[in-house]
């Protein structure tokens, strides 16, 4: 076997175990009631659905959804295009490489927690162009446009990506409204934060890995946006850290389901009622894997803080406000290079920890 670059090696404590617990109990939620009815409808079916969503967010931070309204052809088209793109020679993929100036496109040296991930990615924004701060420096008010770049092959790549993104965006708004209702808010309470959204889609490719005991497809992390909506193939590999005992639980693929997880922004908005949960992706020496996460994120100008309806004298705000654009730009620094310090996290804004 060729010598493997040690930048892929996880610290001993974070290397994957050879045996994992399969998560049969991560909630599987049927969204069919909201396909025909507005989420603010007070029918018993909607009320029960809102309760299920709330329980899943509180107890797991992760759940799966079926009967979600995203056409299966839409998903099949992007999965086929993704596979065709990634299975090209590396020099072809690098024609649309991303960099620090424009972080949209192909990349194969991403880091999580300062350790290199065993994967390749292709990123694109939903709003093209998307506006973000030009730098992470607090007093720099300049903005920059992020624009998509598209490969020449596969020929239907852009069309498949854009069509799928619109379907998942629509689903994400439905989920956002259900989560708002589960917190006792009006259904559209959070929607305005997503005007001029900074959401992006990622195509992931996990090649065969000769050292699955030392490396991870993606190292342990929490997602910083509001929500992540994930399509994974039938290979699996996603693991969630169970809140009750800290065990890593494998999320078994469910046909035509999407996996949804609460991100840091919802944790802060909810004042810790719901928690963003650590997760990772194990590597495989037997089967390559493809997945497509959608990171649903608000406008760069949004100040993220506990919602006023959810704080009181008995439950004071647990976080000071932070600007999403600056947070996101700072967080993305570690994607391109290994940092000597831990990257920015929401706990840095905890009021008790200032």
Biggest beta-sheet profile: 8 strands, mixed
Low-confidence stretches: none
Beta strand %: 15-25%
The succession of helices and strands, N to C, reads EEHHEHHEEEEEEHEEEEEEHEEEEHH
Spatial strand arrangement across the major sheet:
2-3-15-12-17-10-7-4
- Give the integer mean of the pLDDT values: 89
Roughly what percent helix?
10-25%
Apparent shape? globular
The count of strands amounts to: 19
**Spatial extent as radius of gyration:** 20 Å
**Count of runs of 4 or more consecutive helical residues:** 8
What's this model, at a glance?
The chain is α+β, with helices and mostly antiparallel strands.
Protein model, in words:
The chain is an alpha+beta fold and 354 residues long. The chain has eight helices and 19 strands. An eight-stranded mixed sheet has the order 2-3-15-12-17-10-7-4. Helix 2 packs across helix 5 (157-182) and helix 3 crosses helix 5. The relative contact order is 0.17.
Could you list some keywords that capture this structure?
354 residues, alpha+beta, 5-stranded mixed sheet
């Amino acid at each position: 076997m060729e010598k493997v670059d040690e930048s892929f090696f996880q610290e001993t404590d974070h290397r994957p175990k050879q045996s994992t617990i399969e998560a049969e109990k991560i909630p599987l939620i049927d969204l069919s009631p909201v396909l025909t009815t507005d989420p603010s409808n007070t029918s018993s079916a909607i009320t029960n659905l809102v309760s299920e969503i709330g329980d899943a967010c509180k107890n797991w931070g992760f759940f799966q959804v079926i009967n979600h309204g995203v056409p299966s052809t839409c998903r099949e088209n992007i999965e086929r295009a993704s596979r065709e793109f990634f299975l090209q020679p590396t020099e072809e993929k690098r024609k649309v490489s991303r960099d620090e100036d424009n972080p949209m496109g192909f990349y194969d040296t991403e880091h999580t927690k300062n350790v290199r991930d065993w994967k390749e990615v292709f990123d694109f924004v939903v709003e093209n162009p998307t506006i973000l701060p030009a730098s992470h420096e607090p007093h720099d008010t300049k903005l920059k446009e992020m624009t998509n770049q598209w490969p020449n092959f596969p020929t239907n790549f852009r069309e498949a990506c854009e069509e799928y993104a619109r379907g998942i965006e629509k689903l994400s708004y439905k989920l956002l409204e259900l989560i708002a209702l589960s917190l006792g808010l009006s259904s559209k309470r959070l929607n305005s934060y997503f005007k001029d959204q900074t959401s992006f889609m990622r195509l992931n490719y996990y090649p065969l890995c000769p050292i699955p005991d030392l490396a991870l497809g993606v190292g342990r992390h929490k997602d910083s946006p509001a929500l992540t909506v994930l399509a994974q193939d039938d290979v699996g590999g996603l693991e969630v850290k169970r809140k009750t005992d800290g065990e890593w639980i494998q999320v078994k693929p469910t046909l035509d389901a999407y996996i949804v997880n609460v991100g840091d922004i919802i944790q802060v908005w909810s004042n810790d009622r719901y928690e963003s949960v650590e997760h990772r992706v194990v590597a495989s020496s037997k089967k390559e894997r493809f997945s497509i996460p959608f990171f649903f994120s608000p406008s760069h100008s949004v100040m993220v803080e506990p919602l006023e309806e959810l704080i009181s004298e008995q439950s004071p705000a647990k976080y000071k406000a932070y600007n999403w654009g600056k947070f996101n730009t700072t967080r993305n620094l570690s994607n391109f290079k290994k940092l000597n310090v831990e990257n920015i996290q929401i706990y840095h804004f905890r009021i008790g920890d200032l």
